[in-house]
């Protein structure tokens, strides 16, 4: 599937066939591909809460305004933003030194730069996890589509209740949920909602 076909074929499906299961192995394989998504300084600010059993999907549905799709989907990946993602820097630097991606004599400066860019800067941390987590989710949706799966991005969750229900620590924030499964053939997908032409949105040079 080429990129343009994927862009045109992807839809946020309105309903999933609840009889379809996805194996954890396949789900993790798709997630592994999405892990090539870009992130600032490649600090990878994402982690995942995966709801795969019907019990877990129902717990998630209860904190997602009872949206039916959450329980119907084969699985739901809740993309979490790790506000402390700059602490990945040392591990990433060490691995990059091993493979020659980063010269050893630049390691300490790179780590100090990455940590210094975010340490104590809560708004910047939050902005970055929202950017990174969203790019991860988009990459995941396209990979899923290529492999024959439908998806639905969802921001309709009660963040405070979600973190309580699933024990998410305050170092992490829910960014977006992506439900994955096979679309329910009995529920028609409506034609695409209107897109504002890009020409109305571009500010060339200055706003
Ligand atoms: C950040 C975000 C949050 C969304 N939240 C929900 C949601 O909670 N429930 C839902 O049914 N759809 C949700 N959607 C799906 C959008 O309604 C859908 O993407 C949009 O209408 C465009 O349709 P399309 O993706 O099929 O082109 C969300 C999409 C995004 C990107």
Structure described in brief:
By secondary structure, this protein is of the alpha+beta class. The protein has eight helices and four strands.
Per the principal axes of the C-alpha atoms, what is the gross shape? globular
Strand order of the largest sheet: 1-2-4-3
Q: If you compute it from the alpha carbons, what radius of gyration comes out, rounded to the nearest whole angstrom?
A: 19 Å
Report the β-strand fraction as a percent range.
Answer: 5-15%
SSE string: HHEHHEHHHEHE
Report the CATH C-level class: Alpha Beta
Q: Please identify, by name, the CATH architecture.
A: 3-Layer(aba) Sandwich
Give a structural overview.
By secondary structure, the chain is an alpha+beta fold. The protein has a single domain, classed as 3-Layer(aba) Sandwich (NADH Oxidase), CATH 3.40.109. The chain is built from eight helices and four strands. It has helices at about 5-10, 25-35, 55-60, 70, 90-100, 105-120, 120-145, 160-165, and strands at about 45-50, 75-80, 150-155, 170-180. It has a four-stranded antiparallel sheet with strand order 1-2-4-3, with helices on both faces. Helix 2 (about 25-35) packs across helix 7 (about 120-145) and helix 5 (about 90-100) runs antiparallel to helix 6 (about 105-120). It is globular and about 60 Å long. The two termini are about 35 Å apart. It binds flavin mononucleotide (FMN). Flavin mononucleotide binds near residues 11, 12, 152, 153 and 192.
